[in-house]
Here is the input.
Amino acid sequence: MNKIMFERGSVGQIRIHVMPTTRFKTFAVSLYAGIPLAEETVTTTALTPFVLRRGTVSHPETIQFREQLERLYGAGFGFDVYKRGNYQIVQFRMDTINDSFVNSDQSLLGQSFGFLGEVVTRPVTEDNAFRASYVASERENVRKKLEAIINDKMRYAAERCLEEMFRNDSYRLHPLGERSALEQITPESLYNAYQDWLQNASLDLYVVGDTTLAEVEELVERNFHLQRTSSPGYEPEQVKLTDIEPRTVTEQLDVNQGKLNLGLRTSITYGDDRYAAALLYNGILGSYPHSKLFVNVREKESLAYYAASRFDGHKGMIGIQSGIEIANYQKALDIIKAQLASLAAGEISELEMTQTKAMIRNSLLEMQDSAFEMIAYDFNRILSGKDRPVEQLLSEIEQVKPSDVVAAADSVRLNTIYFLTGQKEG
Amino acid sequence: MEAITYDRLQETLYHETMSNGLQVYVLPKPGFQKTYATFSTKYGSIDNHFKVEGESEISVPDGIAHFLEHKMFEEPEGDIFTQFAMQGASANAFTSFDQTVYLFSATENIIKNLETLVNFVQHPYFTDQNVEKEKGIIGQEIGMYADNPDWRVYFGLIEAMYATHPVRIDIAGTVESISAITKETLYTCYNAFYHPSNMLLFVVGGVDPEEVFQMVRDNQASKDYKPQGSIDRLFEQEPTSVHQARKESKLPVSLPKCLFGFKEKEVGLSGEELLRRDLTTKLALDLLLGSSTTIYQKLYDMDLISDGFSYEYNSNPHYAFSAMGGDTKDPDQLLEVIKAEIEAVKSIGFREEDFERARNKKIGGYLRMLNYPENIAHEFTRYNFRGGDLFKVLPIYESLTLDDVNQRLREHIDWNQLAVSLVVSP
Here is the structure.
């Protein structure tokens, strides 16, 4: 097994993590910027990267800006905005060809840093504000994205289930913010919010490729123009379990297929010693084609095409998703609940344990072939404060016993049942 | 075993044709943990009318290739996922217009997993009961796609373009069409298209090629395949012109979805000629509509398109078409503006400088793709079934000229060949 080894440094209050390797044809660069998820900042933070990707001081027009990326052999550049635990993370990514494969006279890694550093720290401005036309069109763009969530019913149901489940928690907020807040954002207010964000966000920069920590530190020094005075970290979520009666929420839309989603809380988060047991619990429940949900909801009863569960170790929650015939709501719900009960009762076969361990082991090993996945795994450590190298997690997985899975089941509480149904009475 | 080296890409591909006709390719990726393998048949949703040499002509129900893919996972002793999970492999399959692909990825037990893959695909097991059961599951899959506006707008476009060619059939068929599927029709299709001479095994990752070839040789030698005659795929004469200029479907969407494209007039290309036209058209579309172009920026500034705007070109010896578009507040205005803008570009042609940059971007994208074993396996097989070679893409890109791209643009963008598909809220 290749060891995942990041060399660590810091420049200008940005934590730097570099993995020198020649295994890939590219340099993978990720910059994570995280701030606490809060109603006051969620929308401006979400809008910021959309405006940043419109133009910089040296490439103020969007066309020039994008042409510059194409000159770097079509360097992959993108960003995502998402939630992790109680934080809103903006992740910028670049994926640039290693110069040795093309006839480039300048270092492509150097040029990529020139580009990324400018995107984040030298946006085009006018009168101490972002360019007004960019703010106006990106505000519109984000509004459309928020409104478009309803187009994909699987995603819509998952979002709605979260929203209901966390209606008294900032986690209810969508990572792209709130439509109502967008309208009040001006080029000035956004620019101010951006400066606060740049000052206060936790910044972690990762590079995987044929380079060194010293080279990356020098590139950050040269290309990121920041005057930060501190380098805040992350506080992991602490889950307090409460015994409440699960809430059922039903919503009607013009759909052919019903979407039945369940939201569950667990007190086990990434930093917990029981984390490996929770991975097993979720794997046996619904992550694989051999899992209880797939076998019982789909294969035995032909009720669904998909029926799966997902464990979020940063928030301490499990989401179950399925797409069913509307008339089969009660039957499907009963079968899903029966799977939860069966796990809690310890109905776990030797075969289920072996298969699930093998599958988790495989995905942890496979991760090491992808630069961005190795980066994402390491970032868990930054988010949770828990240093758990892959080798350690692998050995913890091997040691989990059925009784540990039952103990993990004991930390799980069904919180919300969400059903998206058709217009007519089903 | 022959070794084909591609110095520029720093890759060596190993190939052998088994005595029963099966093509086997191995691409070792030193340093990679994962091995990814695909076992594919040149058989997809369009192959619904055919004649195997020495047998009679036959038409089969729509959606049967996909149905067959689902049923292959069932063996007398149960679901083959169980076996893969025990061996730590993550398995899956998919069906497209012209191929069905079975696959796994694993980091351990590679040879064993390869044997499982080859054996289960070469061992059909259909019963009346397991065929009936699958109809419920696939019915839900069809229902899920029926609610998906992106899928609907895409198929709407193909249905608008093609009058008789089976590319217009939804890959999964309809609830009605699959109701006619029986174990007998499944065996008929299986026997016609799953002969080793119609199949390709591709293995990429941290493997020793000779070990793979040895296993496959022994495995195939133990199975008694009789030589099979050629397969005639029968297609009714498809008119050159589009079937329907405009097609509209209703689904709840936040904004209308508008996808349009041009039906290629000349079909029947194959091999390098087809690959060359494919790459030239894709480059032309990039130069015309990519996010760094004036047309894209103008449409974005007019709020006629947003981030989701995309374009693609799909080509096969029997059909070829482009598809472009996205969400828009005003489909008619979008079409009107884009037509005027495209005509302006067509008359002047692209600029040399833009051409060079776009070509570099394509080369960069191609090299980045080679980081991902999944993509290599899928793309290699897709090209191979169409008579092309994925590893010849780089020299083709390098041989393209500005004139080639300008000429291709003028040839492809023929407004008489335009079809438009819309999804709007009811």
